[in-house]
Amino acid sequence: MAHYAIGDLQGCHAEFMALLERLRFDPGRDRLWLTGDLVNRGPASLAVLREVRALGRAVTVVLGNHDLHLLALGFAPKTARRRDRELEAVLEAPDAAELLDWLAARPLLHRDGALGWTLIHAGVPPQWTLDQAESCAREVERALRRDAAALLEEMYGDTPDRWSAGLAGSNRLRFTVNCLTRLRFVDRDGRLLLACKGPIAEAPAGSLPWFRHPERATRDDPLVFGHWSALGFLAEPRLLALDTGCVWGGSLTAVRLDRAAEPVRLPCRGSRRPGD
To answer: Residue 83 and residue 13: Cα distance in Å, rounded?
Structure first.
């Protein structure tokens, strides 16, 4: 049995299927982790959702910020700040309710002790241990499943920007969502710098990637994440970044998690240009 992780799909269905074929992926035998952002920007979000859902127990996917935006459009449409044309096909599909319910049941963090890796979409603040990250993720997941509209109506916003054990209610949930689905940079005090989105070399003074913070409590925990196409592929001890910008004309990348192997990268034509 092979265990693969693949970076952000963002509606790139044809490339996803081509990569699975190249891997000779067998859902009856193999297992697949997806870093989230199944939808948006690419041309076939509906096809991606249907395909991933059909894989059943062979696939584990965590929620990304674009997935949550789709859920906001579906469950709290007055709150969503924009309507993306790529998501209209999902919302208008005859199986939209089933797809949205399935998506809303996905986790924000998946931890596999036997495999030794933890899957997230974006990042972890330096103050959190892995146990804290998992606990906070479960809080959001329970809120999403209990009352999706109530959670999603309070989801948007960049504050609070620093962890405190005293955070409660919507502030606590929003902070968790922002860390696990939007985070790239922090400052030296561990504050989230959510407006910073580019490559590391162009980051403002005083900022650093969340995984480079010297006091990061999860530095000994193996993490797989996506979200950051400007970062690209990064493979370090206990760290794998897999968003290689398929939708922007980069590649779609798969890595085996169960043994050492070279990454498999499928070149992508891309359907969007940065700045669109």
So the answer is: 21
Decide if 212 contacts 223 (C-beta within 8 A).
no
Measure Cα distances from 243 to 108, 117, 169, 267 in Å. 17, 17, 31, 13
Asked if 1 and 57 touch (Cβ cutoff 8 Å), the reply is: no
Q: Give the contacts of 166 (CB within 8 A, at least 6 positions apart).
A: none
pTM over 0.85: yes
Please name the residue that has the structure tokens 């919507």: 170
The answer to the question of residue 87 being in a domain is yes
- CA nearest to 222, candidates 112, 103, 81: 112
| Averaged pLDDT, 17-36 | 98
What CATH number does residue 77 fall under? Answer: 3.60.21.10
Q: What would the pLDDT profile of 105-129 be if each residue is shown by its tens digit? A: 999 999 999 999 999 999 999 999 9
Question: Do the Cβ atoms of 143 and 173 come closer than 8 Å?
Answer: yes
Which residue range(s) make up the domain with 214? 3-267
- Total of domains in the chain: 1
pLDDT at 79 over 70: yes
What is the identity of the amino acid at 117? Answer: W
Mean pLDDT of the chain: 95
User: Between the CA of residue 113 and those of 32, 117, 256, 257, 261, what are the distances in Å?
Assistant: 16, 7, 16, 12, 20
Q: Does residue 233 sit in helix, strand or coil? A: coil
